[in-house]
Amino acid sequence: MSVPFIDLKRFEEGFLSRWSSKVAEMSAKAEFIGGNEVAILENRLAEYSQVTQVVSCANGTDAIQLALRAIGVGSGDLVLVQNMTFWSTFEAVINVSANPVTVDIDLSDGGIDIDAFEEAVIKFKPKAAVIAHIYGWASAKLEEIRDFSKANGVLLIEDGAQCFGAQFKGESIYKNALISTTSFYPAKVLGGAGDGGAVLTNDFALAEKVRQLGNHGRTTHYGYEAVGWNSRLDSLQAAFLNISLDYLPQRLASRREAVNYYNNTLPKLGLKQINAPGVYLENGYCNVCLLEDDDQKTRLEAALKEDAIGFGNIYPGAMSEQLGAKGFLHAHVGEYNAQRLCRSVLNLPLFPYMKLEELVEVTDTVSRILVKR
Ligand SMILES: *Cc1c(COP(=O)(O)O)cnc(C)c1O
Fold first, then answer.
1. Which of 280, 248, 256 shows the shortest CA–CA distance to 44?
2. Which of 57, 59, 61 most suits a substitution to test ligand 1, by most atoms within 8 Å of the C-beta?
């Protein structure tokens, strides 16, 4: 039996018919931009994420760019960026004409390394920093990072594209951030029928700035106070997300069941994982295995391929190593744990409604390669 790395087609019973009716109803009314669905979505996201303001936008990358622009980051400003994240976190900094300084990560949780972060803040006095909560949780030192940033006048943006639905000490991770962002790319925990994103904050003025920038910097119908761009979320997209939110608890429960299966099985096979620090209830976005023996990693990947089991390497390269970073990277601070993680990371299939026999199939292959007989 083959097992995909991710299968986005496992919709709940009734989901697709609700969506079809919605599309028909909204199309008949030509309800395509703005309107009820967008407003309802923003309110529901705010309530779910325990923040007062949510502004939806076209995608998660725009969300980071809007957040950077809204806090006043622009030409020549220094911005710290976690060296292990999706490229878009890094790209966003350059797209707003700022200069990125990469900072190493902590191998125990994949978050930014706090010592390197503090060193970089003191050395470079950056205007802002963008950290990313990857894999479905955030740094064990999240509160210290926030406090240190605040005390040193560094505006902290939290890229929460992968942590939707995860909890920090029983509350939403987004709750106490100055400003955070998320993505509704279909493969994310709350995925759309296309691209989408949002900026979350408790600061009304910041949210208004984000809303303005994502709508051409418009203040009146033909009046523009700033140069922004068009980053509105489509109404149909919002409607799809509103329906999806109804099923989110089931999807999260199913993802977490798969996580529990892996956590109960993989350590016995001698496979090392990065797990969520104890203060988090992870959302089950991603499985993260570490194979520091190159030869073993190559053999396991070959076996997974042979058995038609999908896997990922999230991510195979650090930001500072990308060709596209050349000419933009201002400096790097800290060690090279991001590069170490990149070399050894392997992600096993993890998505909602995986069947037990699929999980067993995956761990059987792992067992065949790792366990010496
Ligand atoms: C997906 C993702 C983004 C970008 O989101 P898009 O909606 O694809 O633009 C940014 N950061 C991280 C960490 C992501 O995983």
1. 248
2. 61
| Reported pTM | 0.98
Task: Give dist(CA 327, CA 57) in Å, integer.
Answer: 29
Give the whole-angstrom CA distance, residue 64 versus residue 70: 10
For the four alpha carbons of 220, 224, 226 and 231, in that order, the dihedral sign comes to positive
Question: Using one digit for the tens of pLDDT, what is the confidence trace for 130-179?
Answer: 999 999 999 999 999 999 999 999 999 999 999 999 999 999 999 999 99
**Phi and psi at residue 22, in whole multiples of 5°?**
-65, -45
* Integer Cα distance of 156 and 178 in angstroms: 6
Give the 3-state secondary structure of residue 289.
Answer: strand
86 lines ligand 1 (CB under 6 A): yes
Is residue 155 within 8 Å of residue 147, measured between CB atoms? Answer: no
Residue 371's pLDDT is what? 84
- CA 285, CA 26: separation in Å to the nearest integer? 31
The CA-atom distances, in angstroms, between 284 and each of 82, 92, 95, 250 are: 22, 26, 31, 12
Q: Give distance in angstroms: CA of 334 to centre of ligand 1.
A: 24
**How many alpha carbons fall within 13 Å on the CB side of residue 47?**
7
Ligand 1: distance of its center to the CA of 161 in Å?
5
Contact 172, 283 (CB under 8 A): no
Residue range 195-230, pLDDT digits in tens: 999 999 999 999 999 999 999 999 999 999 999 999
Hey, CA dihedral for 62, 107, 287, 321, is it positive or negative?
A: positive
